[in-house]
Amino acid sequence: MSAPHTDVEQVEAANTAFYEAMERGDFEELSSLWLTPADLGVDEEYHDPADSGVISCVHPGWPVLTGRGEVLRSYALIMANTDYIQFFLTDVHVSVTGDTALVTCTENILSGGPAPDGGEELGPLVGQLVVATNVFRRTPDGWKMWSHHASPVLAENDAEEGDAGTP
């Protein structure tokens, strides 16, 4: 087993690789960062279908997605419908216990789609603040994503609008 500080550095690198793959729209790289049955020592050809829910993902506003196929389909859909995305991570905290690591962070997201007029220019950029919990598991090939859970942060003006009807 590697030294604790080395584990933290390796988990930080895996976490960064996840967000960088999203920014580049690199689906192959993103897919390689998630656990597979083989990473868990399970023969993919003979694994129990009940194990298909081993990985999970919650995107902001989405239901829980379980299983490698469902999770990766969601990322393919996001990448196909996002022309530009950039993550500025803040408040990153890494905790490693044995072969499991927990990363909490704030995703400061800047994203955009096509211009409203259908031109080749990028449309207006939109900012979003999301808190995320990423769980990693140590494998022979390094740290792999086990679960990603992201939740939007309520902005101050959203809270004021919600309080408008209260005395």
UniProtKB/TrEMBL annotation:
Segments forming a coiled coil: none
Pfam families, A to Z: SnoaL_3
InterPro entries per the UniProt record, alphabetical: NTF2-like_dom_sf, SnoaL-like
Domain SnoaL-like: 11-153
Annotated protein name in UniProt: Nuclear transport factor 2 family protein
Source species: Streptomyces shaanxiensis
Taxonomic lineage from the root: Bacteria, Bacillati, Actinomycetota, Actinomycetes, Kitasatosporales
